Amino acid sequence: MSERTNQQFALQGLEWAVSHVKAVVGPKGWTDDPRVLAPHLEERRGLFRGATPVMVSPADTGEVAEVVRLCAASGIGVVPQGGNTGLCGGAVPDESGAQVLLSLARLDRIRELDAAGNTMTVEAGCILADVQAAAADADRLFPLSLAAEGSCQIGGNLSTNAGGTAVLRYGNARDLVLGLEVVLPDGRIWNGLRKLRKDNTGYDLKQLFIGSEGTLGIVTAAVLRLFPRPRSVVTAFVGLRDVARALELLDRARAVCGDAITGFELMSRICLDFCFRHVPGTRDPLEAEHPWYVLLELQSGLAGTGPQECVEEALAAALDAGAIEDAAVATSEAQAYAMWKLRESIPEAELREGGGIKHDVSVPLPDVPAFLDRATRAVGEAVPGARVVAFGHLGDGNIHFNVGPPTDADKEAFLARWGAVNEIVHDIVASFGGSISAEHGLGRLKRDEIVRYKSALEIDLMARVKAALDPDGILNPGKVVRRALSPGTGSGCP
């Protein structure tokens, strides 16, 4: 059969699948309007732009399953998409125009909130901020929190194993899930919506799908863990001389306050300067400038002044020991909000400053100072005048090590060095036994690069899992793993 004939058959299969999935979701459940599609076809940073003949928005899990079944029957790829806030190109179709885009936005119901059992069953399209608010209305806490929480969806959070600012105490997204409902690559529905804390009956299947970025199955609903709502929250902003002293502060705070510390965010001075320059309403919480800052937050189930006294005791001891240079403890919600606004505005301010080459990495906690020192020097030698913007979740070793262009550089020429700068930084991360993707995932951006840092055996095992569940490569093709294996074949390395 000629290549032209193959292309004709592929086109006919695509047309058949598109017409049938439109019928499944009905007139309100699909669009091919270029103006509506445009924001769904571009990755948040503009690194990837794709194409699709149609975006379908099923109204329930049954419709998701039927769309997937029809596409699988025609060999058509399906790209699931939540809020499209990811940073690795994992939620946009490729440029071929031969993949169906499946939006989960209409699956937005909270099916059950069990306050007594501290669980909430939600559909994948629920906005994270709405999940948080529903928990709060029931006097409970859902602790997953990140800058995009006003637009990201819980299905995407779970599919990428989102981290955020409270990992130090509550863990990543996978630690907040008890059960899942998943549409498999052949259209079958796995109902694993169990509310059990203990279920030792074989493989923990839900963990296969959490963090798989929609390549093994489409998460359509989840049972989430809830926690008692904090009765008091204490927020402090601390100035420090160096990152080693930030780790010393973390040790001291833990010794005094225990596991009540929920946030421990690191920022370099340039982060604040960018915010002051580009984000209205931001201001310095401290009187003098410092090379580094920590935003510390403690949540306690105890009301009253005890938690604040605990934080003040830890800060006073650190100040006396020379571990910190200055600190301010928020005395109102408005002050706490202003401190957090600085931390959460860094990506926006960085973009307005001209963007940069980004790295979402993690290293063992004691190695963070050495990593920052080595990586900063190496990048400076490779790109003289480059501006390192380092910030992140120091409490769990996750640093966003971003490299901005020199002030007088040609931006396009600088960004053309993305791969070379990535290799410099990621090689240093690997030398510490770290990860080149702490919380953003692999998507398409790091799919090929990860082969350099994982063992051949790990890559092979990943490919075998993909082949076992999705042998035809229907779900989110080209993301995370380069290609699926046919069951029983050899290595999946490209």
Gyration radius, rounded: 23 Å
For this structure, the CATH topology of the largest domain is: Uridine Diphospho-n-acetylenolpyruvylglucosamine Reductase, domain 3
Q: Identify the CATH architecture of the largest domain.
A: 2-Layer Sandwich
Largest sheet: 7 strands, antiparallel
Name the shape in a single word: globular
Number of domains: 4
Given as residue ranges, the uncertain stretches (5+ residues, pLDDT < 50) are: 1-9, 486-494
Content-based structural category: alpha+beta
Q: What percent of residues adopt helix (DSSP H or I)?
A: 25-40%
What is the number of strand segments? Answer: 18
Helix count equals 17
* Fraction in beta strands: 15-25%
Average pLDDT, rounded to a whole number, is 93
What distance separates the N and C termini? 26 Å
Can you walk me through this structure?
With 494 residues, this protein is α+β, with helices and mostly antiparallel strands. It has four domains: 3-103, Uridine Diphospho-n-acetylenolpyruvylglucosamine Reductase, domain 2 (2-Layer Sandwich); 110-228, Uridine Diphospho-n-acetylenolpyruvylglucosamine Reductase, domain 3; 232-347, Alpha-Beta Plaits, CATH 3.30.70.2190; 354-431, Alpha-Beta Plaits (2-Layer Sandwich). 36% of the residues lie in helices and 19% in strands. It contains 17 helices and 18 strands. It has helices at residues 3-25, 34-37, 61-74, 128-137, 154-159, 167-170, 206-209, 243-257, 269-278, 306-320, 333-344, 346-353, 368-382, 411-415, 418-431, 450-453, 456-469, and strands spanning 30-31, 55-56, 77-81, 99-103, 110-114, 119-123, 140-141, 177-183, 189-192, 218-225, 227-228, 232-240, 261-268, 292-300, 326-329, 360-362, 387-393, 398-404. The strands form four sheets. It has a seven-stranded antiparallel β-sheet, with helices on both faces. The longest helix is centred in the N-terminal third of the chain and has 23 residues, at 3-25.
